[in-house]
Amino acid sequence: MSEKYQLKFSDSMIIIPFVMVFVIWFVYWIEIKFGLNFNKYGVYPRSFVGLRGVLFSPFIHSGTSHLFNNSIPLFVLTGIVLYFYREVALKSLIYGGLLTGFLTWIIGRESHHIGASGIVYLLFSFVFFSGVLKKHFRLVAVSLVVIFLYGSMVWYVFPIKEGISWEGHLSGFLIGLVFAILYRKKGIVKEKYVFSKSEFDEMFDENGNYIPPVEVEESEEGIIDQQTITYKYIYKEDSE
């Protein structure tokens, strides 16, 4: 990877999370400023018109508390995915977000489902399961940090509270798991440690059998002759 590419991607790890959070707050500001309500642009399950929410629903929120609850984990988890899973980060965000919205459209209640929480659950699930599946010590550590910070989110994939789109949470969680499995061999993976060989190791073949050294001598003409190695076995008879 060139230094120019590394610099650009390093910048994106900061810019993209900021842009995502800024956009959802800007959309809410427009609603307040002009007295609008964009809730009708959310996902409305099993309705053709409701499919537009697959694109628009992550940017629409019902209030400031809804925004606050999504903004911090969205920023943190997006940054983690961009840093540790850079090869598949954008694919996971874009395709994963679309599939999360579509699955919500399939399984959701007949109501408008809005908010970036589906994306948050997508990223949470992807980061956690990727670390577990890859078994790389750094990624496992990241998974443990994420479960420590946001582990309580798991409960909200169940219908335990009114007014929350648990279907959107469940959709994001399942799609994140699918993408973690799909990309388990991409990016950082657990490497098998290979011990360096010494002169002692060269004395044995791959099955552990001793390889006797071959003596060579150089003739007067400079031709190297290989001496014949003779093995002499002595058997001792068992005494009665």
Strand order, sheet with most strands: 1-2
Oligomeric state: single chain
Given the structure, what is the number of helices? 7
Q: Uncertain runs with pLDDT below 50, 5 residues or more?
A: none
**What is the first-to-last residue Cα distance?**
76 Å
* Largest sheet descriptor: 2 strands, antiparallel
Question: How would you characterize the overall build of this protein?
Answer:
The protein is mostly helical and 240 residues long. Helices cover 52% and strands 2% of the residues. The protein is built from 7 helices and 2 strands, in the order αααααααββ. A hairpin with a 5-residue loop joins strand 1 and strand 2. Helix 4 (89-107) crosses helix 7, helix 5 runs antiparallel to helix 6 and helix 5 runs parallel beside helix 7. It is elongated, with a radius of gyration of 30 Å. The model has no long low-confidence stretch (mean pLDDT 84).
Produce the secondary structure layout:
Layout: H1 3-34, H2 53-56, H3 64-84, H4 89-107, H5 117-134, H6 137-150, H7 166-182, E1 216-218, E2 224-226
Antiparallel strand pairs: 1-2
Helix pairs in contact: 1-3, 3-5, 3-6, 4-5, 4-7, 5-6, 5-7
